[in-house]
Predict the 3D structure of the following.
Amino acid sequence: MKNIWLGMLILLAITGTATAKSGSVSEDTEICLECHATLHPGIVQDWLNSRHAKITPAEGLKKGKLERRISVSQVPEELATVTVGCAECHTLNSEKHKDSFMHADYNVHTVVTPKDCATCHEVEVKQYGKNVMSYARTNLVNNPVYVSLMNEVNGTHAFKGVGSGMTLSPPNQKTNADSCLFCHGTKIEVTGLRTVESDMGDMEIPTLSGWPNQGVGRLNPDGSTGSCSACHARHRYSIEMARKPHTCSECHKGPDVPAYPVYMVSKMGNVYSTHKNDWDFQAVPWKVGKDFTAPTCATCHVSLLVGEEEDVIAERTHQMNNRLAWRLFGIVYAHAHPKSPDTTIIRNKSGLPLATDLTGEPASSYLIDASEQEKRRRTLSAICLSCHGSNWVDGHFERLDNTIKTTNEMTRTATNILLTAWEKGAAKGLSQNDSIFNESLEKKWTEQWLFFANSTRLASAMAGADYGVFANGRWYLSRNTHEMLEWLHLKLKNE
């Protein structure tokens, strides 16, 4: 029965939708399928439905420039005329993987990484390496300010009685992996070996810490950074999935970065929800007006877009931020994007690893300049202009600029209240070498920029207005400053 099932799988993989004519499933992948079709049918079926199972790299290279999804000029000879299957990904570069182990006479590794994907998708991997997302873990765990916030959020608090306050126990690795590092990325390390039973006898396979994880800034056992499966889920590696906003919602949905809910209540999100079943999410290149009629996240930030005559509106990019003039998700203020994806190198005038000072002054030497900001804005505007007139586009960006200005002003007001509390001794702060996130006033200050200012800016950027007013928007920016000031007055009055 197993051999019949395997034969059917291989037949499907070879014929599929009649796209793979010159290539076939490799003998090595056939051996993988012989067991895993039974052990992991969900994985195998996902792969069978993938483009990898239906076309060879050699055929991909024959596509025209705009149609091509492979970005190298050639691939290793042994990979060119076979479909991309289990063995092609999980035995590739195994000598560089610390998670490799012998399995059925093959040196197999569990974690497929961007360095592996670069065999066919070199340009995309290089672009992704310039992306702040690829440093998401590094930028979080190597920044003492962010670590202080993460500890306060994820740690456990113990109440010691009236007058004694609370003590904080920092979070363990599992807690962080289940929270912040789920999206930012864990560090995957081999911690030992474990024995598992199989039809082929007992096997020793590596025990991995930090696994499972598909975080965007994951540190991998081969030394690479990032995870392609954050957007293209493993085994299917679907471009359709990466183009739909539900994928981005995995990490961009909460009150700190509410991009997904803002998008869904916008007119763009309304058009998507209404007409998405009529769109072609797999077309390459992606033609505006024909394949889709309103932008998704990928439209604005990633995809190769063309017009009716296949004139290029925007080149494909995996850098994500090279169409963005502003880093709206600012800590503590919105600011120009950093020059380097490694933001741990930034120092503001107070010596903190933040892109702005607490007073709002940007650490300009670490940030892109005005000319680069304008270049990125023109790139994004070109996408907007494929559906809207220049008055609409200019007016939209003027409103966004105003929103950045006013939300930064409201954040500065909250910061001035906090600085006064530190100065008057109503709260402990930087001068006492204390966490700036562990007192009630400091938590309200954090909400000012982390939740309310960010929500307002994203609402302005994507025209999801209610999120900029009452759904964690301007109402809360105003209310929060009043509550902070009242807290400070009561604290000073009672001392």
